[in-house]
Amino acid sequence: EATASALLLRAGLALLAWPVYLLSFLGIWEPFCKKVFFPFFLEKISGAHEKKSKRYKQELFRNLPDFRGPSGELRLLEIGTGSGSNFQFYPAGCRVTCTDINPNFQEGLSRNMKKNQHLHYEQFLVAAGEDLRQVPSGSVDAVVCTLVLCSVQSVSSTLREVLRVLRPGGAFYFLEHVAAEHSSWTYFWQQVCYPTWKLVFAGCCLTRELWKNLEEAKFSELKIQHISVALPWMPIEPHIVGYGVK
User: Fold this and answer.
1) 78 pairs with which residues across the strands?
2) Which candidate in 52, 132, 140, 220 could, as Cys together with 77 as Cys, close a disulfide (CB 3.0–4.6 Å)?
């Protein structure tokens, strides 16, 4: 629970961000955020995040080819593709299905598709992680999700969908920011920023303990590593990275 001082600072932050709260109340902020602000901001921040997380992603995706299906092809589904910053890490010939709840990333997406012509792009689905009904059960070899589980409506429903669309023996890859150690300053600031951050950044929750959701999901094998990806002035330093096998 947030302490009294965290609550006081939280109120102060909300006061500073009152124009956003007002626009949200008037129903203007959400569509603007979805169409303009979030894609723009995400592109800016993902550049910085990419530099810091690149070595972790290279390491993470290194064994992707091991999960090729019986046909020798690797069918990969990405949840929350955004502008496609993960494409560079996928092996040549990989068949990629992109999904995102927000269809407003076209510019960055087509730029990254042009840059990464070693992949086959199958389709782009506008879909939430909790509802991948357009994807048949057991039809993909790998599912990838980076910096997305912080903002899905329900983490457990998303992981249920992941397990449904994966074939037996397929793998789910993740890299996500998570709640800090409860006794730390980072966690204190996560508590302070929480409501305003969630409003400004399209539903992003700072204090999710996602490793617990992953441990509760029914993976036959799960590898999780706690790492630190520090960005200046951002309360999202603690991350988890790893993969689970169905």
Assistant:
1) 98, 144
2) 140
